[in-house]
Design brief:
Layout (H helix, E strand, L loop, with lengths): L2 E7 L4 H8 L7 E5 L10 H13 L5 E6 L3 H7 L7 E3 L3 H11 L3 E5 L5 H13 L6 H11 L3
Parallel strand pairs: 1-2, 1-3, 3-5, 4-5
Helix pairs in contact: 2-3, 4-5
Length: about 150
């Protein structure tokens, strides 16, 4: 089954974004590239907000957001109340954030991880399902409530 995945980066993540789009994964992916497309300096919030809005309105099943550390763009994505963006530096984090947190945006730090690790993280993130029911679902409902 083909999955629609939105992907966006700032200038610090554009090379990793392009690498991932050109890789072969175990499932068929339709990449929706939301920019940036050059190494010219841009502001990561612009691309984080755009990606978050795209995923929140169900135009993509998941999002992949990339900046230098992964942190800045994750903060931008998480400003959208329908987004659960997580920075992951290995496949264990990616698996657990899907199982436990139902994360819908994966954030990567292009200056933190290499291409092979990034591919493994993306593969794990998009092929792992949320563990419905029980404590995880209860916690996700609490996150959707105003505090």
């Amino acid at each position: 089954m083909r999955k629609k995945i939105a992907i966006a980066s700032d200038h610090g993540g554009v090379d990793l974004k392009d690498f991932l789009k050109n890789e072969t994964f175990s499932i068929d992916i339709e990449w929706i590239d939301l920019g940036t497309n050059s190494s010219e300096s841009v502001d990561y919030p612009d691309f984080g907000y755009k990606l978050a809005d795209f995923v929140a309105t169900d135009q993509a099943e998941y999002g992949i957001a990339i900046c230098g550390s992964g942190i800045g763009i994750s903060i931008a994505c998480n400003r959208n109340e329908d987004i659960r963006a997580a920075v992951c530096t290995d496949s264990t984090m990616a698996r657990l954030t899907r199982i436990d947190n139902d994360a819908n945006v994966l954030c990567l730090g292009a200056r933190i991880i290499g291409e092979v690790i990034a591919k493994d993280i993306v593969e794990t993130f998009i092929t792992t399902e949320f563990e419905t029911g029980g404590r995880h679902e209860r916690r996700m409902k609490k996150l959707k409530q105003s505090h």
